[in-house]
Structure formats: structure tokens, C-alpha cells
Amino acid sequence: MADPALEGYQQFTFAAAGPPEAGEAAISHLVYHRGDGPAVLILHELPGLSPAALRFGRRLADRGFHCYLPLLFGEPGQHQSMASYRRLCISREFARLQSGVSAPIVDWLRRLAADISSRHGGASIGAIGMCLTGAFAIPLVLERCVTAPVVAQPGIPFSFTFSAVGMGRGAWMSQLNIADADLEEAAVRARTDGITLMATRFRRDRVCPAARIDRVAQAFGDHMVRRELDGGSALRPPHATLTEEYERAPDAPTHPTRVLFEELVAFLHARLDRGRVPEAL
């Protein structure tokens, strides 16, 4: 807990049995948390549980939420995109970053979401996935307690060529690192129970192509709020809507990242301030 980015955070360890196909008895990770109010599960990006991710959790906690940030890999405070990518390409827990597959870590996250809800008296919770974990917020919708899902710039699968020079278009651009069945079932739950999903990206983002958000929109229809931000350039296309790009931006209320953050706060409060999950949604 010596890292200054962790100041004000508490921690606990959460362990849960993985699905039988995972071949492991249990998955266990540290979970850092802070704040008071409705619970929000925040899933960190490819660089790890970086200082920027921890500061995002702090900003959200300061706006009236109890934020939970599981350490999915690496060390708290790290920022190692390439090392993380190489590690996760052989990780069974992350299904080796395959498209069309919900990894064992998603099942663990669903159990964590249910545990967080129980810690708040059975209340509804929010779930925010970003980049590597962006699509993970979709299968979390299958947990009845999750009523405010946010899919921020889902970045897997990833093309190094397209990211670097904008070449190499293909089917990968609309693919997600979750099972097709999970996407379909989550969309059904959204329509049945009146759940709205928020999806965000930068228009110039070459890690998360527009086609990927198009696919989520096709599934969720009127139950998705889409926010695409202007900013960056062809030479430096932006990516992380809620963390790094927020911190790079001028501190002006009209900047797209500031507008998005305020919309996110309103989105979460509108769906979580009602308290306990109804017996039947």
C-alpha cells in the first residue's frame, strides 16, 4: 500500500471457483475500494491498475460512489501495456485474448459483482469496462444486480498495423472478446428489464474501431446510449476516454472528456440511487 496512487483505498481478497472448463479450482484477486454511496465495479485497462485508473476511481468516488477496482493482473500502480499484452496472450484466465469467447475471468467478475451487491444490502451496482475489459461489462449485465453497465472503448481484438498506420481492416474490427451468446443474452435482459448500456469511444480511435460499437448497438438497439468523442489527430489517435485522455486534456468544462465524465456520473446516479434491486426486474 506504499504507492501514493493507492492512498485512501482499502483492499480485500475475493476468491471464487471458476467454470469447469477453466481447469482451475478457484480464481483469486485483490480488490481495492474507496468511497461511499452506490457501488460501481471498475475494470482496469491493458496497462494494468495504473495510477490513471486509480485516479479515475478516486474522481468517481468523490462524486458519491463506492468504487471497487479489482487487480486483474500485475501490480497496483503499474503501466505496462506491451508486457501485459504478451502475458495475457498466453493466459488461460483471459482465454488468451480470443475473440468470441468469454474468458474465465468474466465468470469470476460476475461473482464479484454479486458479492459487491451483497455488501451493499442487495443494491443495484454499476459496472465499467475499459479497453481490454471494455466488453466485459456486457456479460456482467447477466447478473441481476448490474443495472448500469458502461462499455468504454473495448480494445480486444487488436491490430498493431491498424493502430499504427490505419491499415489492415477486417472482420476483427467488429469482434469482441466475449461470447456471442453472452452478447445476445445481455441484450435480451436489457430489453426485458429496461436496462440501458452506455458505450464510449473517440471517433479517431484505431484501437477500438467504430464497427465494434456498431455491433453492440445492433444488439442493444434503443437500450444503448452511444457517446463518441472528438479529439486527437491522425498522428496521435486518442483511446482512453475516462483515464489517460481525461488527464491529458485541458481542465475546461466544455472539453469532450469532461462532458463525458459528467454524463457518466449522471448515468450512474440515475440508475443506482434507487437502492435495492427489486425482487423482479
Structure in words:
The protein has 281 residues and is of the alpha/beta class. It is built from 9 helices and 8 strands. The chain has an 8-stranded mixed β-sheet with strand order 1-2-4-3-5-6-7-8, with helices on both faces. Strand 7 (197-202), helix 7 (210-220) and strand 8 form a beta-alpha-beta unit. It starts with 9 loop residues before the first strand and ends in a 9-residue tail after the last helix.
Outline:
The chain is of the alpha/beta class and 281 residues long. It has nine helices and eight strands.
Note the beta-strand portion.
Answer: 15-25%
Helical proportion?
A: 25-40%
Number of separate strands: 8
Instruction: Quote the average pLDDT.
Output: 93
Q: First CA to last CA: what distance?
A: 40 Å
**Biggest sheet architecture:** 8 strands, mixed
Give me the number of helical elements: 9
Helix/strand-derived category reads alpha/beta
Q: Name the poorly predicted regions.
A: none
Strand order of the largest sheet: 1-2-4-3-5-6-7-8
Query: What value does the Rg take, in angstroms?
Result: 17 Å
State the oligomer. Answer: single chain
